[in-house]
């Protein structure tokens, strides 16, 4: 072949190769060709270790994926078309890097069902459950609860017991609650191979009243039942009230506060926080503890000294809820105090002026808050005098004031009772102060009669 022909053929071959390369990477329109997507994880098959089994038995199921599960694993949904015949878990997770996973099918009663596995595809396997007695010959002996009475919202453990050891693969005991809206239990519990018992949990909801339920178990053609009482759920522990008695406290005085719960305090007691406002009017402890089993507790409310009436609020708080009580503090009232003085000695009065006066003075100036002093003195009759100076010298109507053995007439003295009440500018009256041991003497010389003829 001439060289010119060889050159032409080589040029054509080069152009053809370039066209083929461009076609391999360019689509019509000039966009790059996307790489093929990775293979999708899906269920490629589901199988059972046996297509038939006996009531109360458990068999193994196997799921096969199209490719190994990626990071995080793959969750495959499971379903039994007839859960009254056989039950399965809602799903099974196949570990990352694995393409197979297993699950358990529990045979509940005689019949047929279809087990379906779903993940981007569904695959099914059929199962027939017969009433054949399990190979071990074991039957259900009993079912029990560790507490037959519980409060709504609590849980209780139950136990099923077989007459003998469970067969290879274990024994599936079906469970049933007479009212699943109050007490929920698993559909079944597996007694491990060779074991005679297994536990399960009954979960109840909070209720407003009491319920009587039946919890049942079935295995090997035998059904056993036990009773469960679910009592009404008590309301949450809360503070019902706080009160102060009396609700009006005198300046500087005190009262008793009481906190009340809506139910008895639990074990260990309950701490109720206390405070008062405005600050400085009354004081309380920072908290009070309601003892276990009690629903009330008391504390002391102390009023500050004040010259004007005040109002304070006591606040008790428990679990974020507060109750309050109002306290009134009255201003400090007047107080009465006096002494009897004379040249004859303390608490001694000597008759003068023929028994009309005595040489002593009633001095009430130690009283507080007083603008008026009301003195009362008694021997036979009663005399009352009101003064504004705080002091007074008593007078008598005459010797007849003393002519009696009341309250005491001796050969040396007559006993007189002196009392004092004071009033402030607002008319508030104090409590009464009294001295029952003031002595009156006649003032005569020894052996000679004194005033009113008394010889003492």
Count of the separate structural domains:
4
Radius of gyration: 52 Å
Strand-pairing-aware structural class: mainly beta
CATH topology value of the largest domain: Immunoglobulin-like
Contiguous helical run count: 1
Q: Return the CATH class of the largest domain.
A: Mainly Beta
Query: What is the CATH homologous superfamily assignment of the largest domain?
Result: Immunoglobulins
Work out the strand percent. Answer: over 45%
Distance between the termini: 181 Å
- Major sheet strand order: 30-29-36-35-32-33
The largest sheet, given as strand count, sense and whether it forms a barrel, is: 6 strands, mixed
DSSP E strands, number: 36
The CATH architecture of the largest domain comes to Sandwich
Estimate percent helicity.
under 10%
Instruction: Characterize the overall form.
Output: rod-shaped
Mean pLDDT: 85
Low-confidence stretches: 7-13, 19-29, 405-409
Strand and helix map with partners:
Elements: H1 3-25, E1 43-48, E2 52-54, E3 58-65, E4 74-80, E5 86-87, E6 91-94, E7 100-107, E8 111-118, E9 122-130, E10 140-145, E11 149-151, E12 155-162, E13 171-177, E14 183-184, E15 188-191, E16 197-204, E17 211-219, E18 222-231, E19 239-245, E20 248-250, E21 254-261, E22 270-277, E23 282-283, E24 287-290, E25 296-303, E26 310-318, E27 321-330, E28 339-341, E29 348-352, E30 357-358, E31 361-363, E32 372-378, E33 382-387, E34 391-392, E35 414-423, E36 433-441
Parallel strand pairs: 2-9, 11-18, 20-27, 29-36
Antiparallel strand pairs: 1-3, 3-7, 4-6, 4-8, 5-7, 8-9, 10-12, 12-16, 13-15, 13-17, 14-16, 17-18, 19-21, 21-25, 22-24, 22-26, 23-25, 26-27, 28-31, 29-30, 31-34, 32-33, 32-35, 35-36
């Amino acid at each position: 072949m001439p060289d010119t022909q060889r050159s032409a053929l080589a040029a054509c071959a080069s152009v053809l190769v370039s066209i083929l390369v461009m076609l391999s990477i360019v689509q019509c329109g000039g966009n790059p060709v996307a790489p093929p997507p990775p293979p999708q994880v899906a269920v490629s098959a589901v199988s059972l270790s046996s297509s038939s089994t006996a009531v109360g038995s458990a068999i193994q199921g196997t799921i096969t994926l199209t490719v190994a599960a990626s990071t995080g694993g793959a969750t495959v949904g499971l379903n039994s078309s007839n859960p009254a015949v056989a039950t399965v878990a809602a799903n099974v997770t196949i570990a990352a890097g694995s393409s197979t996973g297993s699950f358990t099918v529990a045979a509940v009663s005689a019949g047929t069902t279809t087990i379906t596995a779903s993940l981007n595809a569904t695959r099914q396997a059929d199962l027939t459950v017969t009433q054949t007695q399990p190979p071990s010959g074991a039957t259900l002996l009993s079912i029990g609860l560790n507490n037959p009475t519980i409060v709504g919202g609590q849980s209780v453990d139950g136990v099923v017991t077989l007459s003998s050891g469970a067969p290879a693969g274990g024994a599936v005991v079906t469970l049933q609650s007479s009212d699943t809206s109050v007490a929920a239990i698993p559909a079944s519990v597996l007694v491990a191979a060779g074991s005679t018992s297994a536990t399960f949990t009954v979960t109840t909801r909070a209720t407003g009243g009491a319920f009587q339920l039946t919890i049942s178990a079935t295995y090997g053609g035998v059904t056993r039942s036990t009773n469960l009482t679910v009592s009404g759920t008590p309301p949450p522990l809360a503070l019902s009230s706080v009160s102060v008695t009396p609700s009006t406290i005198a300046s500087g005085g005190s009262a008793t506060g009481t906190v009340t719960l809506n139910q008895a305090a639990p074990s260990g007691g309950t701490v109720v926080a206390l405070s008062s406002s405005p600050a400085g009017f009354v004081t309380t402890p920072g908290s009070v503890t309601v003892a276990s089993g009690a629903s009330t507790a008391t504390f002391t409310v102390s009023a500050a000294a004040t010259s004007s009436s005040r109002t304070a609020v006591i606040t008790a708080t428990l679990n974020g809820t507060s109750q309050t009580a109002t306290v009134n503090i009255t201003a400090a009232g007047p107080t009465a105090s006096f002494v009897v003085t004379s040249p004859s000695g303390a608490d001694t009065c000597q008759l003068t002026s023929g028994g009309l006066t005595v040489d002593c003075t009633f001095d009430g100036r130690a009283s507080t808050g007083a603008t008026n002093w009301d003195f009362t003195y008694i021997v036979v009759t009663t005399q009352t005098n009101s003064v504004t100076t705080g002091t007074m010298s008593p007078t008598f109507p005459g010797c007849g004031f003393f002519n009696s053995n009341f309250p005491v007439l001796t050969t040396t003295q007559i006993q007189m009772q002196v009392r004092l009440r004071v009033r402030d500018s607002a008319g508030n009256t104090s409590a009464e102060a009294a001295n029952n041991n003031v002595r009156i003497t006649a003032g005569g010389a020894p052996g000679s009669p004194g005033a009113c003829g008394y010889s003492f």
